[in-house]
Amino acid sequence: MKLKYFKKNEPYIPLGLCSSLNQKVIFSFLILFISSLTLTYAQNSSITGFTLVNAETDEDIMPLQDGDELILSMLPTSYLNIRANVSEEKIGSVVFRFNDTNPFRIENFAPYAILGDTKGDYNGFIPPAGEHTITATPYSESGGKGEAGESLTITFSVSIGMVTDFTLVNADTDEDIMNGH
Fold first, then answer.
1. pTM for the predicted model, two decimal places
2. pLDDT tens per residue across span 17-69
3. Which domain holds residue 102?
4. CATH code for the domain of 51
5. Which of 5, 59, 120, 140 counts the most CB atoms within 10 A of its CB?
6. If DSSP states are collapsed to H, E and C, what string results for the chain?
7. Please, which pLDDT band fits residue 163 given cuts at 50, 70 and 90?
């Protein structure tokens, strides 16, 4: 086998002939490759939406969108959690801001829920009545470190929702039968 030279007295050594050189070259390549993946991954990650979760059954109730009004008496439970949905399968962490508390919670593992979970068993709370704002931001590293991805902010309101008036309607004719107070 002939060796090729780049410069005088500096041989080109094909892969396989010098293991320490190969390890240095491969290691350098991997560092550059991983660094570029981290930057791409952070720039492409985003919060795509929020989901309201039943913390008693760990089942999704509905997407939670900007401007929604949650009437607790109309939900299957008042014991709730809110999950941030992410665009990438691998996220380092998600930082939640709730109303004026920043950070309210940092989640390092999926599912990324504002009140956390234990191996998929969602922690829950009964949200107080009033208007609330949630912001979630994905990060490339755990603990809310590294490159930030695209945040999402929504505002929603919560009410207890007692029925104060109703109208009984004939299901066949769609006509009012009786007004109740």
1. 0.68
2. 445 555 554 444 444 444 444 444 445 799 999 999 999 999 999 999 999 99
3. 42-162
4. 2.60.40.10
5. 140
6. CCCEEEECCEEECCCCCCHHHHHHHHHHHHHHHHHHHHHHHHHHCEEEEEEEEECCCCEEEEEECCCCEEEHHHCCCCCEEEEEEECCCCCCEEEEEECCEEEEEEECCCCEECCCEECCEECCECCCCEEEEEEEEEEEEHHHEEEECECEEEEEEEECCCCCCEEEECCCCCCEEEEEC
7. low
